Amino acid sequence: MDFLRLYMISMISIIFGCILAEILSETNLIRLLEIKTSRIAKFGIHPSLTTIPALYLVNPRVAHAKASVLLKKGLIEPVDLYIAILASNLSLRVMYVYRYYLPVLLPLLGIVTLYFIGLRILFDFFLVFVVLMIGRRRYKDVRVIYNNNRINLDFSGKAFKNGLMKGLKTSLNFALKFTPLFLLVVLMLKSGISDMISPTLSPLLEKLGLDPLGITYLTTTIFSPTAAYGILKVMLSYNYPMQKILGCMFLGNGLFVLLSESWVRILPFYSGIYPKKVALRLLFLQVGLPSLYNILLAILLLKL
Questions:
Q1: If I label 243, which of 110, 144, 223, 274 is the partner at 20 to 30 A Cα–Cα?
Q2: Long-range pairs for 186-191 at CB < 8 Å and ≥24 separation?
Q3: Count of C-beta atoms within a 10 Å radius of residue 174
Q4: Residue ranges covered by each domain of the chain
Q5: Counting Cβ atoms within 10 Å, is residue 223 exposed (0-12), middle (13-18) or buried (19+)?
Q6: DSSP letter string over 122-173?
C-alpha cells in the first residue's frame, strides 16, 4: 500500500471539499440548493441538512464539510447529523453505480454485477426508510418555511477569495487532527498487523465452504478490492455458482470496510472533521451496520 499516495489523495480530497463547501456558501449557491431541496425536510431530514443527499451525489466530503460546520455552530444536534448521513447512503450508492459498478464491474462480471447492485440497494432502501421514519417523528413539530424569494448569487472575486481562505483554514484544522491518526495507522500496518489477518481468517473461511481460490479472493480484497476483481473473473471462467460468487463479493466487501477502510480512511477522516464521540458513533453507523448486513448475507449465500 502506497501510504504517501493515500495520504496525499486524502488531503487533496478534503482540501477540495472544504474549499468547495465554503465557496458554495460565500456565493449563496448553497442557499439556492437549500431552497430547491427544502421540501425534503417533510420526509424526515433536518431542514438545515436537506442539501446533504444532493451533495453526496457530487462529493460526500463536501457534504460532511457542510454538516460539520453546522454542528460546530450548534445549528444541529448529532442525531440530526446521523439521520441525514444515513438517509444519504442511497445517494452514495447511486454515485457508486454510475462511477464504479457500471463502468468497471458490469463489463467484467456481467449479470452478477446487477444482482450485487440490487442486493446492496435493497439494504440502502431499508436503511433510508427506517431513519426517515425516525426523522419524521423527530421533526413533526418543526415548521419549515419554503422560501421562494430570489437568491442574490455573488460571483465576485471577494466571495471566491473568502471561500478559498475559509476552506484552507478548515483544511488546516482537519490536517492537524487527521495526520497523527493516519501516521498511527501506518505504523500499525508497517509493524506487520496485516500479515496476521490472512492466517487468522483462513480456518474460518474454510468452514464456509470456500476453496483456496475463494480464500485468495477474500484475503486479497481486504487490502485491495480492485486487485481482487480479476480473481472474480477467474471464478466465473471456472463456472462457480452465482450465489457463491455473490457471497464472496459481499463477504469481501464487508471485511474490507470493517478491517481496512474503516480505520485506514474513514476513522481518520471523521476524527479530523467531527468531535470524537460523534466520529465514533458515525463510524459505527456507517461501517458497522453495512458490514453486518454484508457478512450475514454472504454467509447465507455461501451456505445455500
A1: 223
A2: 186/3, 189/1, 189/3, 189/264
A3: 24
A4: 192-304
A5: middle
A6: HHHHHHHHHHHHHHHHHTTT-------SPP-----HHHHHHHHHHHHHHHHH
**Mean pLDDT, residues 172-196 taken together:** 71
Amino acid at 175: A
User: pLDDT (tens digit, 9 = 90+) per residue, 102-131?
Assistant: 877 888 889 999 999 999 999 999 999 999
Whole-number Å distance between alpha carbons of 243 and 249: 10
User: ∠276-281-284 over CA atoms, to 5°?
Assistant: 130
Contact (CB, 8 A) for 223 and 252: no
Cell numbers that stand for 180 in this block: 497523527
Mean pLDDT value across residues 70-84: 93
Q: What is the pLDDT of residues 137-149, one digit of tens each?
A: 888 776 655 455 5
Torsion of CA 221, 61, 91, 266, to 10 degrees: 30
CB 106 within 8 A of CB 114: yes
Q: How far is the C-alpha of 133 from the C-alpha of 94, rounded, in Å? A: 21
What's at 299, amino acid-wise? I
Neighbouring CB atoms inside 10 A of 25's CB total: 19
Would you say the C-alpha torsion 237, 238, 239, 245 has a positive or negative sign? negative
Output Rg (C-alpha) for the chain, integer angstroms.
Answer: 21
Position of cell 509493524?
Answer: 191
The amino acid sitting at 162 is: N
- Rounded to an integer, the average pLDDT of 88-111 is 85
Q: Are 290 and 257 in contact (CB under 8 A)?
A: yes
Q: How far is CA 92 from the centre of its chain?
A: 7
Q: For residue 205, what pLDDT band results from cuts at 50, 70 and 90?
A: confident
List, in order, residues 6 or more apart from 26 with CB less than 8 Å away.
154, 159, 160, 162, 163, 166
* pTM score above 0.90: no
CB 144 within 8 A of CB 40: no
CB atoms within 10 A of CB 152: 9
